[in-house]
Amino acid sequence: MRSELLKINKILLILGLCLPLLAAALPDESAVPGGVVILPLAPNATPRPVVSFEGKPVLVAAENGLWQAVIGIPLDAKPGPHQITVRQAEKEKTLIFTIEDKQYPTQHITIKDKRKVNPNQYDMERINRETRRIDAALRHWTDTNEVPFDFIWPLKGEISGLFGRRRVFNGEPRKPHSGMDIAAARGTPVQAPAAGIIRGSGDYFFNGNTVFIDHGQGLVTMFCHLSRIDVKDGQAVKQGEIIGLVGATGRVTGPHLHFGVSLNDERVEPRLFFPQSGP
């Protein structure tokens, strides 16, 4: 009996050691504009497939013994069929998936600094320079099998602005809200939700003091309107490490954290990456 128990314990230990290699806790799936679609591709005993969606590389992770494509859906995606291209072992195929319609509510916001709604020529020159730097951070591709999905909330607070809302500033329509706002007092520490590398952080016209964390394979998180940045470009950060403090820099109505998630260079619903309980 003792020898049988020892064998069982040894098997359980081996299984426990193998579990992190067999599965990754992927984000929740939501097949709507601004959501995430997950498609099984092939057994993960085979080489990792190369996937693209609308010309952009797509994150591929192992879960339940399979390679899975984790696809960020654009906020302006049309309902109906869409496709990805999958290349593996010199073979190429397409997979079809369907996007359902979703209507996001409209939010009217009053901004006192009118230049933050209608920038002047000097502002536009700065914005154009900054846009190129922001785009480079969001499009950065770090090729790795180890993409962390076990996100923790960057801070505790009340959600004050939902993802996807169509925004109207001072009566003028603007782009939808590409992240979520978490209300917190100025100076509240902001922590990295997962390990990664700092890319392209700085002071931007609209975003204020901003930090981008590259988590690998096109998964990037962004943290805007900070009062202070505590990290540098190229720095490796661990989950839970403080990256800055809540502030009210850039286009804001008060202190808060704008937190965003970018996947294959598409801004997606941040709450899909977290436990159901809020921050």
Largest sheet: 11 strands, antiparallel
Relevant CATH superfamily of the largest domain? Glucose Permease (Domain IIA)
Low-confidence parts lasting 5 or more residues at pLDDT below 50? 1-23
SSE topology string: HEEEEEEEEHEEEEEEEEEEEEE
Rg? 21 Å
Beta-strand portion reads 35-45%
Which percent range fits the helix content?
10-25%
In CATH, the architecture of the largest domain is Distorted Sandwich
Number of strand segments: 21
SSE-based structural type: mainly beta
Distance between the termini: 49 Å
Query: Number of DSSP helices?
Result: 2
**Tally of structural domains:** 2
Mean pLDDT: 87
Overall morphology: globular
Q: Look up the CATH topology of the largest domain.
A: Glucose Permease (Domain IIA)
CATH structural class of the largest domain: Mainly Beta
Description:
The chain is mainly β and 279 residues long. 33% of the residues are buried. 14% of the residues lie in helices and 39% in strands. The longest helix is centred in the N-terminal third of the chain and has 21 residues, at 2-22. Strands 9, 12, 13, 14, 15, 16, 17, 18, 19, 20 and 21 form an 11-stranded antiparallel sheet that branches. The protein has a 4-stranded antiparallel sheet with strand order 3-2-6-7, with no helix packed on it. A 3-stranded antiparallel sheet has the order 1-5-4, with no helix packed on it. It is globular, with a radius of gyration of 21 Å. The protein folds into 2 domains: 23-99, Immunoglobulin-like, CATH 2.60.40.1590; 106-273, Glucose Permease (Domain IIA), CATH 2.70.70.10.
